[in-house]
Every structure is written in C-alpha cells, then in structure tokens.
C-alpha cells in the first residue's frame, strides 16, 4: 500500500483537424526524462476547472515517461515500464468509425499498450481522416456517420482526458460497461455518443465533487434522441461509484433514514467495507458492518503519539496516496478540503558506514538495475507458451552483471525496494506477472495526507452502523439468506453478505464458509501471494535530520538484511511533530516479527547516528516509538497482496467473484486486478461490489431469477469456455470458432482476440534451462476477447471472406450484423451451448481412450 515513486505517463498532443482525436507519444526509454510538472493535486481545489485540469494532465503527460507502478523508491529517475509501449500510437475517435468492431472493446485500463496495438491494428477498419489509421474507405460513409455524432462540448478531448483519469478508455468501452449493456450494439455512432455523454457527466461532477450531479442537469445539453443514452450513462456512473460518491454534505444527505431495500452484512470496516457500506446505504439498503478490531480502517491505521501535550500522527499501515490524478481518495480529500503533501523526489542514499553514496556510482548502478528489468521484460516476452514457474528473484540473479562489493550493496538496496513495493521476497514473485497492474497506474504525484489517512477513515465512518470487536468465525450462505457467526455466539442474518477481510485471513482459514468456497476460488486464494512490510516509528524531541527531504535510504552489506531499515520516511512536515519511519521489507520483515522492540529501535538509532554524527549532528533518543507486527496480527496476517510464482492477474478476478447465486460477495485490495496492494484499490473494490449487490437485489425484487447454467456456476462455465478455446474447431487469423452439433444451422460460438503476443521463442535463448522454464503467456493479460453466437454456416462463410481480419470484421458487423460482447454478455443460452460442446468433447475423448486401449 505504501509507495513513494513518481508516476510517469506518455504525453498527449491535440489533433487540430478533429476535436475528438488525439495521439499519445511515448518517449524513447533511452532518452532522459524531463522534469515533470508539479501536479495540481497538491491543491484541494484541483478539479474546479476541468478544462484547465485536462491541460495539466496534458502537460504532465508531455514531460514524463511510462508508468512504473511497481518500481518504488526514489522518484527522481523515472524509467520505462516493463510492459514496454510503442513510441507513437493513435488513440482517436476517428469520427466514430474506428469504434466499429473490435477496436471498440479496448482494455479496461484506459491505456493501450504496444502489444495491443500491434496485434489489433489489423482488426481496425482503416477509415478516411483517421490520422495514422487513415485508409481508403469511401468518404461518403464518413460524412454520413459524422453527421450523427452529437456535440455536447467543444472540449471533447479535454473531457476524454478527465475520463481517462477515472479509469475509462478515451475512445472505447470498458468490459464492465459492455456487460452492463450501455449501448445496444458495441461499436458505431451510438457508442461514440454514449462516450461523449459519459465523459461530459464525469467532467461536470469533477468541476465540484462536493455537489450531487443530477440527470436533469444535462437535459438541455444532450439532444432529446440521446436521452436514453443519458439515462444509461448516468445510472451506470452513479451505481458504480464514478460520480456522486464520498463524504460531502450534499452526498451524505442522500443516505435514506429509513432503508427500503434488502439487508446487507459487511464484514470488515476497512476502506473496502466502508466504501461499500456508504454506497449501499445511499442506494437504500439496510447495512450492518461487523469489525473485529476496536477501530475502523483495517490496514489503514493512523496512531497518535504524544509528547509534552503535542501530538504527532503516524500511519502504521497504508501511508502514501499513490497517484492522485483520478484517485478516489484524492477526491475525498478535496471534499474535506484537505491539502496533500507531495512526496519530494530528493532521496539520498548512505553507505553501510554512514557516508553518502557517490552520486556517479549511484546513477550507474540504478541505470544497470533498470536496464536489467527491461532485459527481463524482453526475455519473458520472447519465450512463448510455457509455465509461469520462475521467480523474478531467480531471473534477476541469473542475468545481473558482476558487481564489486560497494556496487552490490547498492544493487541490493534496489532489490529491497522491489520487495517493499510488492510485500514479498523476490524469490516468491512471479517473473511473468509481478507487475501485471502497471498498465493501470493512476497519474499524478504520490502524496502524504497531513495528519494521517485516519482522517479519511474518520470521515467514511460517520453514520455507518459498525459493530466493533466482532471477530467473524463462520459465514453461512444459501439460496435465500445468509448468516454470519461471530465470537461469543452472536449471529447476524441478512439477504447478502460482503466479505472484505484481507487475503491473509482467507489464506489462514480462520473463517469457515458453509458451504465451502468453490475450488476455483480456493485455488486462487492459495496461488496469490500475501506478503509483509513492517515499520518502526520514532518520535524525536526535534527534527535533527532537517525538513528539506521526505525520504532517505541506507545500504546493507548482506543480501538477507538488505530490507532492514533500508528506507526512511520523514513525517516532520505532515505529522505535527518530528517523526521518522524506518521501513522493514523482504526477509528482514519476517525476522522483525519476533525481534525485541528495544533491539529494533537500537539498530535504527545506530544507523541514524552513523549517518549524522560524523556530520556533527547529535541524534537524541526518541521520546516515543512504535513497532508494527502486521504478520502476527490475526485480523490481517500480513500487509498486502502480490502475484506469486504460479499466479496471475486472473486470480484477482477469481477472488472477486461472488458465490451462492449472488448471496456472498468479496471486496478488498486483493480482489482488484487493476489496483492491488493500494488503498484506492480497496476503496474502488467496495464501490464495485456495492453495484453488484444492488444489481442482484434488483433482479430478485423484480422476481427475475438468475438462470443457472448446467454447471450451477457461471464462472465455472467461463472457465470451461476458456479451456474449449484451447482447441477450437476452426481458427483463422484472430478468429476462433467452437461448433455445436454437426448440422449447418447449429449454433457456433465465435471468439475474436485482439492484443496478446504471439511471438515465437527467441532461438538464442532456447538452450538455457531458465528460458525453458520461462516460456509463459506473459502478455496474456493484455489480450482481450469478444464473443458472439452465430450459425455454423455463417462461421464457415466468415472464414472464406477475403481481406484478412479487417475484411472479416467488416463482414461480421455489416453483413451478419451481430453484436460482439464480453463473456458475460453471451447470456444463459450460450452457457447451455458451452455445456453441450463440453459434453460432446468428453464423449469423443472417452471413445478415443477406449479405442486406444484395445487397439
């Protein structure tokens, strides 16, 4: 949850001939980065002029490099992400035409990677006037369709940038929107108009996040024939927590005094639980929160240390708001008029003997370290299809250059930084997927909240019914109701339950689920990693280290101790007192759990005195200290999640799946694939599940039963579909088909893939054992699949269409006129088709096996 690196992003340049078009230019990773602008999120009034905000986003993007969310540490040297992106690629509305077909269903990250563009560019119909995608399409078609695009605001590009910071792609739909059914057909002018309306609503709310935006505010702006799209966009944004959320008075007064909806039990009063509870209360649900601790906040814990009638606030858990452009916690801070403190770039390093590290040596080793990560990125991309059984640590050790002792100490400091970023030993991190969330990094500065993040928790707790010191022992869920049993024998009953306990608690098995969770979910819980970060907080009589920096680091001369007090945070300017925090990561974090606090403080003081006393600066004894033990805490069992060897980003999604026909739901940072291990990831997961729970309640209230597929589990059916497509009946280009029965009019399932990386393994690496282990689908998380149902005859006709993928897409959308949807959009009928195909293949397999035995 903690971080101190400065996010970096490509810049965006306007195209004057088309107000709906802009191009992202990503600087060469070998070029030195410019000095990024100070982001406006330091100012609580940021967002009151969204057009100027968009310019700030534009300027911020212009000057810095690609995101690197998992490379923590000193932000003064941003480097390119491991998910290397192209140097120039278009991201435009293309007068609405580039949205026809697959290009309209982009990654939910709101960003487009080089891999996605290279593998999907052949799927995008090239239309006139589309910049780098311009082609030979008749101009008449462009003119006719352009006339249908509505004009809401001349600043459409600026509004797209604001929506981008909220996590929406600039010119396409998210998978979540597709599943919600925001448009009748994915692609085309209707979608363009929806996106314009969506972006405008978001921008309008960002003008003043303390107001409640109503749908009626847009009736005079949106043409009457698009009011249906306005209804959909507004309902989607409100229900999913993109607008009208938070703690402003105008929003709090929307909570109904007398709930009219179902009863919901929320387990855990952390950020996820509080976010969900507030949203559900706004929707009219009766909510009860049960919390095992004596306080709210969970792993966000601000403790006040007192000295001579003065208080200093220290964040012992999540402490840094990582990227404040669009960060919902930054929005809460604005609603509360809290000013944020940007974590400054200056971070000097000190040797084992306390002397400053030579700047040239520092830069050289840091460059080598970053280049090594880039090399490993290329290696994993080149290996093709293999297992994910190699650790990042093994690869780093195998391919690092030879260092002398001082260089090795510096290199180990950077390794400790990675272990801090991921709360994991590098030997346990997946080389293939350790940074799978990097494409979704939020822009903006990384900040401290003066007075601690507990101030946000305190605001979220207001008027939420929380029952403290209620440790959950079991959760019973069925087709009608749920029961939650806590220590002492008390039982809570409701219509639905949301479990927000940390992944560490789920791994520990201290909560019994009745019936047992599906094996699919249990496997994901086991595969994902949940590591450890600890802290020592020291309050001194005065800030002997000064107030001109926020971080400094200290090297170790032994790899197993590299994470012990390797990084210091100065809270002197934000805590209300002279406070230092020493971080403990990697192996050291686990040893720290059993270390005597007096010994721990003594070691920290020896480091500080070794640094400052040679400079003639006396280091006094601290007046108060606190040591964390997050691993030993039975209500957390660790710090935050990571992608361990054998796991992938899919496991976050699996952990987020509800079970029991919409009775038992899950939220928390470890259920958020885009933003795991962050405070805002936890908050957003709460918003997500509040929307899901409201949807299930709506279905039940209207007496519509969710149809079950033959496996009794929609997620199992999704897994079966993925397995079936490993061996499609027909495959051509980016299209794959599964056939039902043998007759021509039988139903077939068509899958279209864009993104991904199909490069064959680099032969120069083929003889190395490590590379044999490395051949994994690293870029599988960059793939995006859309589906449709059609007849077997239509599928075979599609295969014969000339013009490659582009020609087939045009044929599919214009001639066959089918709707491409996400997996969930296929509906229950598709589930029966999937089950039928599975049964047929199982039968064939059994016959084949039988024949083989007796041949």
UniProtKB/TrEMBL annotation:
Residues 34-45 have a biased composition (Low complexity). Coiled coil: none annotated. Gene3D superfamilies: 3.90.660.10, FAD/NAD(P)-binding domain, Winged helix-like DNA-binding domain superfamily/Winged helix DNA-binding domain. Residues 153-254 form the SWIRM domain. Residues 111-123 have a biased composition (Polar residues). One of its GO terms (biological process) is chromatin organization. Keywords: Chromatin regulator, Oxidoreductase. Residues 1-83, 111-139 are annotated as: Disordered. Pfam families: Amino_oxidase, SWIRM. SUPFAM superfamilies: FAD-linked reductases, C-terminal domain (SSF54373), FAD/NAD(P)-binding domain (SSF51905), Homeodomain-like (SSF46689). The keyword Oxidoreductase applies. Belongs to the flavin monoamine oxidase family. This is Protein FLOWERING LOCUS D. It comes from Sesamum latifolium.
């Amino acid at each position: 949850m903690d971080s101190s690196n400065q996010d970096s992003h490509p810049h965006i340049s306007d195209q004057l001939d088309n107000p709906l078009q802009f191009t992202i230019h990503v600087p060469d990773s070998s070029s030195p980065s410019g000095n990024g602008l100070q982001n406006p999120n330091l100012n609580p009034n940021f967002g009151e002029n969204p057009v100027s905000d968009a310019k700030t986003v534009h300027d911020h993007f212009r000057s810095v490099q690609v995101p690197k969310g998992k490379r923590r540490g000193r932000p003064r040297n941003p480097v390119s992400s491991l998910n290397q992106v192209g140097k120039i690629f278009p991201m435009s509305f293309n007068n609405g035409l580039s949205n026809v077909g697959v290009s309209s269903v982009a990654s939910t990250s709101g960003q487009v990677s080089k891999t996605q563009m290279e593998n999907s560019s052949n799927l995008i119909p090239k239309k006139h006037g589309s910049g780098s995608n311009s082609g030979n399409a008749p101009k008449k078609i462009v003119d006719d369709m352009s006339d249908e695009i509505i004009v809401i605001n001349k600043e459409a590009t600026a509004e797209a940038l604001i929506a981008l910071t909220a996590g929406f792609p600039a010119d396409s739909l998210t998978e979540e929107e597709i599943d919600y059914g925001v448009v009748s057909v994915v692609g085309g002018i209707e979608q363009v108009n929806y996106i314009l309306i969506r972006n405008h609503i978001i921008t309008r709310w960002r003008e003043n996040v303390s107001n409640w935006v109503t749908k009626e505010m847009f009736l005079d702006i949106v043409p009457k024939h698009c009011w249906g799209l306005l209804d959909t966009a507004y309902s989607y944004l409100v229900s999913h927590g993109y607008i009208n959320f938070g703690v402003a008075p105008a929003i709090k007064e929307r909570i109904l005094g007398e709930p009219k909806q179902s009863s919901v039990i929320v387990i855990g009063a952390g950020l996820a639980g509080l976010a969900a509870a507030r949203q559900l209360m706004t929707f009219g649900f009766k909510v009860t929160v049960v919390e095992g601790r004596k306080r709210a906040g969970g792993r966000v814990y601000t403790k006040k240390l007192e000295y001579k009638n003065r208080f200093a606030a220290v964040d012992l858990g999540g402490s840094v708001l990582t990227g404040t452009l669009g960060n919902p916690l930054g929005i809460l801070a604005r609603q509360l008029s809290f000013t944020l403190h940007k974590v400054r770039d200056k971070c000097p390093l000190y040797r084992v003997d306390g002397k400053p590290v030579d700047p040239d040596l520092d830069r050289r080793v840091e460059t080598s370290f970053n280049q090594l990560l880039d090399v490993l990125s290329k290696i994993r991309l080149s290996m093709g299809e293999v297992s994910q059984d190699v650790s990042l640590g093994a690869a780093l050790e195998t391919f690092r250059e030879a260092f002398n002792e001082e260089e090795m100490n510096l290199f180990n400091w950077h390794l400790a930084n990675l272990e801090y970023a991921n709360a994991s030993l590098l030997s346990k991190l997946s080389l293939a997927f350790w940074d799978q969330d990097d494409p979704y990094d939020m822009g903006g500065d990384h900040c401290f909240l003066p007075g601690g993040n507990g101030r946000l928790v305190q605001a979220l707790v207001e008027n939420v019914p929380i029952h403290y010191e209620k440790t959950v022992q079991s959760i019973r869920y069925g087709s009608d109701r749920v029961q939650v049993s806590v220590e002492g024998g008390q039982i809570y009953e409701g219509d639905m339950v949301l479990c927000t306990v940390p992944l560490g608690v789920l791994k520990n098995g201290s909560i019994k689920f009745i019936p047992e969770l599906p094996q699919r979910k249990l496997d994901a819980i086991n595969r994902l990693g949940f590591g450890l970060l600890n802290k020592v907080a020291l309050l001194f009589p005065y800030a002997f280290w000064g107030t001109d920096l926020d971080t400094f680091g200290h090297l170790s001369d032994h790899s197993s101790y590299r994470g012990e007090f390797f990084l210091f945070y100065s809270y002197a300017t934000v805590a209300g007192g002279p406070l230092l925090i020493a971080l403990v990561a990697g192996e050291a974090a686990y040893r720290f759990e059993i270390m005597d606090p007096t010994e721990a403080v003594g070691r920290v003081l020896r480091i500080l005195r070794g640094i400052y006393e040679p400079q003639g600066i006396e280091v006094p004894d601290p007046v108060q200290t606190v040591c964390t033990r997050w691993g030993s805490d039975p209500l957390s069992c660790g710090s935050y999640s990571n992608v361990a060897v054998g796991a992938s980003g899919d496991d976050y999604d699996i952990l987020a799946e509800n079970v029991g026909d919409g009775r038992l739901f899950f939220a928390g940072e470890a259920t958020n694939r885009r933003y795991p291990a962050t405070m805002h990831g936890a908050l957003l997961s709460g918003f997500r599940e509040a929307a899901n729970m409201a949807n299930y309640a709506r279905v039940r209230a209207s007496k519509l039963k969710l149809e079950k597929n033959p496996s009794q589990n929609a997620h199992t059916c999704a897994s079966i579909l993925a397995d079936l497509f490993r061996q499609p009946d027909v495959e051509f280009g980016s299209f794959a088909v599964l056939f039902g029965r043998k007759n021509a009019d039988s139903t077939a399932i068509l899958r279209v893939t864009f993104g991904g990386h199909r490069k064959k393994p680099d032969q120069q690496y083929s003889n190395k054992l490590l590379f044999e282990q490395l051949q994994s689908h690293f870029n599988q998380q960059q793939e995006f699949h859309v589906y449709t149902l059609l007849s077997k005859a239509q599928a075979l006709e599609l295969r014969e269409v000339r013009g490659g993928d582009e020609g087939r897409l045009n044929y599919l959308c214009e001639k066959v006129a089918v709707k491409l949807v996400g997996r969930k959009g296929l509906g229950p009928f598709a589930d029966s088709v999937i089950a039928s195909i599975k049964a047929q293949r199982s039968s064939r397999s059994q016959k084949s096996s039988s024949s083989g035995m007796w041949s």
